[in-house]
Amino acid sequence: MANNIGMANVCTVPLSYIFMRGQGVKIFSLVAKQCKLDNFVVPTAARFSADVEDDGYEGAIVLEPQAGIYLEPVSVLDYASLYPSSMISENLSHDSIVMDPQYGSVPGVTYVDIAYDIYEGTGSSKVKVNTRTCRFAQGADGGKAVIPRILQDLIAQRKATRKMADHKRVTFGGGRIVVGPLSGSRITDAATGEVLDVTTADATSIEDAYTDFHKAVLDGLQAAYKVTANSLYGALGARSNPLYLKDLAACTTATGRSLILQAKAFVQKEFGARVIYGDSVAGYTPVLLRRGGTDVVYDTIERMVGTGRWTPCLAEPGREGKDACELRGVEAWTEAGWTPVHRVIRHALAKGKAMVRVMTSMGVVDVTDDHSLLRPDGEP
């Protein structure tokens, strides 16, 4: 419930929308609120039609796996909020993209050009048909457009909320109480910014500032900030969403791919890095599950979903032809322990691909043949 209330508060929607509506209306509500504050008018979107053809574009990048057995620890590098950060850094927004050539070279204005490839078909029939370049105006003195400013606020609010959960309450002589982050022997008053040394300022007690209940509420709120920031990009690429603008979604993934390739080149040059690869498994794969926090069973992915509602992944460019089923109260056993299963994504086996069975010490798993697979001797 804490997560649901947090999402409703972040997106400014009724709590019922969390259960009755999709993510798209929540994102639109958030953006519409910011546009109203900025005196922008959001035009009425054309009615969505699934029959309208629209060329696809390239989504996320999967780096070629380096087959082998690694006996030394493998470092994992991760961009913090890759797509939101990409949109912020390049100022990608409806109000910054140059749609009319006469505004593409205004004196005193700095621009960023981003190119992306256009594709037709999916899976093995996916073919590049064209390349499009978009130009984005950069704000004076680093100012950002509407979408990047929303993302900046979401990321900043999440960071602040996560820090709040670790705040301490220090009681000093005379009854003064200070709440804020504690670093070593120093606490910073969250209200005034004053820094006090708890070892020399007559501190009588130090305890957590928030109860477990309050921490759960804060955790739900920070999760809502994270999910909303990561979902905003998807709304831009969903033709059913009023915010739809394919150029923004495509330029976001293009920037993300560029950043990943830059990071790959850097770590390979400096540290000789390797890449780890992962993908989907067959629906009849058995999984160790826990339901409701108590019932532990082995079940298949198909039965885990049961009669759940499948919906097309319309808000997630790059997942055309795939369906998703949202889950609640289901956990799967992983290397990190019991991990919530938020949803299952399914798709048809692409033409030309085959299923192979992998034997492990814990059982078997059937996957598509484009995975990084090793024989018992470590050879591909």
From TrEMBL:
GO-annotated molecular function: 3'-5'-DNA exonuclease activity; DNA binding; DNA-directed DNA polymerase activity; nucleotide binding
Reaction(s) catalysed (UniProt annotation): DNA(n) + a 2'-deoxyribonucleoside 5'-triphosphate = DNA(n+1) + diphosphate
SUPFAM superfamilies associated with the record: DNA/RNA polymerases
Family the entry assigns: Belongs to the DNA polymerase type-B family.
Alphabetical UniProt keywords: DNA-binding, DNA-directed DNA polymerase, Nucleotidyltransferase, Transferase
EC number: 2.7.7.7
Name of the protein described by the UniProt record: DNA-directed DNA polymerase
PANTHER family (UniProt xref): DNA POLYMERASE CATALYTIC SUBUNIT, DNA POLYMERASE DELTA CATALYTIC SUBUNIT
Boundaries of every DNA-directed DNA polymerase family B multifunctional domain copy: 13-165, 206-279
GO cellular component, as recorded: delta DNA polymerase complex
GO biological process entries: base-excision repair, gap-filling; DNA replication proofreading; nucleotide-excision repair, DNA gap filling
